[in-house]
Design brief:
Blueprint lengths: L5 E3 H9 L1 H9 L9 H20 L6 H23 L14 H22 L2 E2 L9 E10 L5 E13 L7 E7 L7 H15 L3 E8 L4 E2 L3 E2 L6 H17 L30
Parallel strand pairs: 1-4, 5-6
Antiparallel strand pairs: 2-4, 3-4, 4-5, 6-7, 6-8
Bound molecules: iron/sulfur cluster.
């Protein structure tokens, strides 16, 4: 395995939001209480991944099969987290009131809605050079900083669809189980990585918002979907981390910052929680 530094989209998003937040989360690794949403989201991704693979390989299963995958994985992960942290699941952090019971009740419905959306749109799944379906595609590409230093960017692309009306080329899609979309750089990264790996034309992306049951309007990503943009953006992250420079970005983000209680700048930011 290459000994080059490895970077990821989530690192970049955290660093872009606030470099000090990145330092506390990724380097200091401050302890945060366990949450329900990350495990429920992972289980949702697994269930919908199984659904799309089964459709692609023409091996249909009853919908209950995907409910079971969701519930089994969520329960297993939460139980392991409960044992590790010795905190009861009922006390895990939630997002907008969506606790464990909410996910048990609503998770299968979200999967139903995804399946209905797939039927309704009937978008094709793109394939790579080996004919493999673009479902949870692992990518690992080498990038170059402006000063010539090389590093690795890796991650997963949830889906790449093809034959999407009004989209020229392939469409990269990130599935979101939270309420907010991510930065466009995430989609630009996936589009550039997909093109780099396969040679397929791709400069458009969208978020599938599970809690809103729908696809965001596909966005043309322009220069964001280029290796030049990735070299520049992620190169700055790599340079900042290697130099140990993490300026705090004090502002409204501080109000809901999840590492606020560990941040020495939170109380001098002039922003109250
Ligand atoms: S509280 Fe504000 S300055 Fe501190 S890490 Fe969070 S966002 Fe950054």
């Amino acid at each position: 395995m290459s000994d080059l530094t490895r970077r990821s989209v989530s690192q970049f998003i955290s660093w872009q939001r606030c470099p000090e937040q990145y330092r506390l989360e990724k380097i200091v690794k401050v302890q945060r209480g366990p949450d329900v949403w990350s495990h429920a989201g992972t289980a949702y991704h697994t269930a919908t991944e199984h659904y799309d693979r089964d459709q692609f390989y023409d091996r249909p299963e009853p919908v209950e099969h995907y409910y079971d995958i969701f519930r089994d994985q969520m329960d297993q992960m939460l139980t392991e987290e409960e044992a590790r942290t010795e905190i009861p699941i009922s006390e895990f952090r939630t997002s907008k009131g969506a606790d464990y019971e909410w996910w048990v009740d609503h998770g299968p419905g979200l999967i139903d809605e995804y399946i209905a959306w797939r039927h309704e749109t009937d978008y094709g799944i793109a394939v790579d050079k080996d004919g493999q379906p673009a479902i949870e595609v692992h990518f690992e590409i080498t990038l170059t900083r402006l000063d010539g230093e090389k590093f690795i960017l890796n991650g997963y692309i949830d889906r790449v669809f093809t034959d999407v009306p009004d989209v020229h080329g392939d469409l990269v899609v990130d599935l979101k189980t939270g309420m907010s979309q991510s930065d466009q750089i995430q989609l630009g990264t996936y589009a550039a990585a997909w093109h780099q790996m396969t040679g397929r034309y791709c400069d458009t992306g969208a978020f599938y918002m599970a809690r809103k049951n729908g696809l965001s309007t596909p966005r043309w990503l322009g220069a964001l979907a280029s290796m030049r943009a990735l070299n520049g953006a992620y190169g700055e992250l790599d340079r900042s981390v290697q130099a140990g420079i993490f300026p705090p970005r004090m502002g409204n983000e501080c109000i809901s910052c999840f590492v606020r209680e560990h941040c020495q700048y939170a109380d001098v930011s002039g922003i109250s929680s």
